Amino acid sequence: MADAIVRATAIRWVTDDQTAVIEVGIFDSDGQEHRIIEKVPVLTRRDITSASAFPADLWIKADAGTVVGEHVEVTLAHPVETTEGLTQLRVAIRDVKWL
Fold it and tell me: Which domain of life is it from (predicted)?
């Protein structure tokens, strides 16, 4: 169960074959953007469709780990991974909300 949500940006609509898929970006605490391509229902309960305006602010579920200064280690929920195969990221504390 996720205990936090992490700020992300829905960048574009990928496809609506069977289940809608979007591309999402998350910035780590070093300013590097990580991309996720995933089914909409896995990432959010928001009603995002091909007609939605992109980019759009989004919050996705994660498990918060160690907090060091202004940074938080998070593990993406469900398990979601970035296009680089990462499931854990270090993000700025301002980009995390605890549930």
Answer: Bacteria
